[in-house]
Amino acid sequence: MVGILVGNVIFGHLSDRIGRLKALMVALVLILIPGIGQYLSINYAMFAVCRFLIALFDTGSYFQSFVLMTELVGPSKRALVSTIASVIYSCGYILLAVSAYFIRDWNYLLIAIEVPVVLFLSYWWILCESPRWLLSTGNNQKAKECILRIAKVNKVSVPENVFYDEQDESDIEDILTGKEKNTKVDSLIDLIRLPNLRRNAIILFYSSFATCLVYYGFILNTSNIGGNDYINCAVEGSAEIPAYLVAMVLMETRLGRRLTWSGGSLLSGIVSLVILFLPKCGSSAWLRITFPMFGRFFASAVYAVMFTYAVEVFPTTVRSMGVSLCSFIGTVGSVLAPQVLFIRTVWELLPEIIFSVLPITAGLLVLLLPETRGRKLPENLEEGEAFGRIQCRVQDHCCCVNMNTSSRRETYRHSKIETEPG
Fold first, then answer.
1. Quick check: 284 pLDDT over 50?
2. Which pLDDT belongs to residue 81?
3. CA separation (Å) from 210 to 3, 197, 279, 327?
4. CA distance 167 to 180
5. Whole-prediction pTM value?
6. Interatomic CA distance for residues 421 and 405, integer angstroms
7. Among 167-171, 180-184, 337-341, 410-414, the range of highest mean pLDDT
8. Rounded (5°) CA angle 58-59-60
9. Per-residue CA distances from 191 to 87, 252, 293, 382 (Å)
10. Residue 303: CA atoms inside 13 Å, Cβ hemisphere, count?
11. What is the b/e burial string over 170-206, where b = at least 16 CB atoms within 10 angstroms of the residue's CB?
């Protein structure tokens, strides 16, 4: 877990500086070193250091690939690709159980897990950098090359005027006048400096903490169900796939990201609340295993929606950093989940109360966030700051549209007089 925490901080910052693809390849190359080192470990200390580094680089590779693929598609496909990523994650969980069943020697199992990473190195030649990130950093020519490469693979033509707009005209004017272009790199300070972005980030961070805390709380409540450990591991991994698919469908309906996320959080909190009143023994004791499975279903759906939303609401210049911070704070919640269960020694009902209050409050706070379904991704801090505010002004805009014709003419006449010189 410590490696995951450190990896989120390092690679979230690195990706916004050098690019998504480069950060991904750095993580994939470096993960091979501790991967081989853990097999050659001569003592526990060496093995622990290798596991720490694997967690660090693995976190970097996962979230950079998640951000990259989301930035490469349009608004109608963002929910689909994020769900595919979550489903493949569960498939890896299942494959791990199957591999462990057939490869009982843990040394050979560790080597088998590292083999796919070698194949992933080919991504350097297969994938291209995120055009959104390239444009946000002023690398317009490279962005053009990437877009043309994508268009060639998709067998579509790109109009030449796509690469020439008002922004290009302003760039040319800056060159002719000798004005230097602003190349300031946005940071975490810039993210929390703006009030609207700060509010969205705080709600996201709190929800990440609550969701991961409750998610791992449900996992720990259903871990001691007996039976074959390999089968149990595979079943737990496959049980999350329906939750991801349901979340994908609901995200693209009129419910959108926000209501799907809020509903899932509220339901997971309600499930924890119901567990408080379930009998611990007798003929109904099976309910104490069934209900945590339902809670895990809702928490898994929320997890999928939450990171899809995080990618969509953070501006391109700080997107990787924002998503990584959500993961960082969520990991803190995961670490604290076992400790919350130990609070039973103080008061038997306290863990379930915590697992109820946190997701319910998170579900209510999410309603304060703007909807992102079908919206253009914000490219810079200014667009990110205006993202939610524009939606809040829709009602005022509609009121202005309903003005009668004579009122509009009178307003226009007065405004024209006020703006005329003299």
1. yes
2. 85
3. 21, 20, 26, 12
4. 15
5. 0.74
6. 26
7. 337-341
8. 90
9. 31, 28, 37, 10
10. 27
11. eeeeeeeeeeeeeeeebebebbeebeebeebbebbbb
